[in-house]
Amino acid sequence: MLHALRVSSEDSEAIAMINQLYDTAFPLYEQRSYQGREAILNHSDYYLLNFKENDTFIGFIGCWKIEDYYYIEHLAISPILRGQGYGQKVLKLFCHDVGKVILEIDPIIDEVSQKRWSFYQHCGFQQTEYAHAHPSYYPENKPHELRVLSYPEVIAQEVYQQFNHTLQTVVMNKALL
């Protein structure tokens, strides 16, 4: 049965598996440094969730508790399990457990980004219309435009503003990058 386990800084085996997937699943400009990944594990509002089925590593979600919502910063499924419905299973389990979710995707400009949006839409996410730029993880990169999605409904402007403020000041705090 699919389940999620919260990873602590002492769980070196899970951290090693997650870091290996993290390094290959995201481009460098979307990654925290190893020091940053270590630092956020000790933040009370950050949750690193290791998804397993029986003893098999399925993937992970790295997320932040922001008011009544959980913000998914990173979600990745093991490459050998992609295309088997695990992304949807993981996301639906997570949404069921936490209730309200915010995440970001690239603007819908091509077939790949359209498929990504369709995946999230199928999982019950709604697209907001708020202009949004995600801060850079590295000073040499500029913030990049992303679309904000929310579950189970479109978030109000004041919820978006609270999310964006926390993203700028807490999630992307330079000491945690």
From TrEMBL:
Xref: InterPro entries: Acyl_CoA_acyltransferase (IPR016181), GNAT_dom (IPR000182)
Keywords from the named record: Transferase
Superkingdom to which the source organism belongs: Bacteria
Domain (N-acetyltransferase): residue spans on this chain: 5-145
PROSITE patterns according to UniProt: GNAT
UniProt xrefs under CDD domains: NAT_SF
UniProt keyword Transferase present: yes
GO terms of molecular function: acyltransferase activity, transferring groups other than amino-acyl groups
Name listed for the protein in its UniProt record: GNAT family N-acetyltransferase
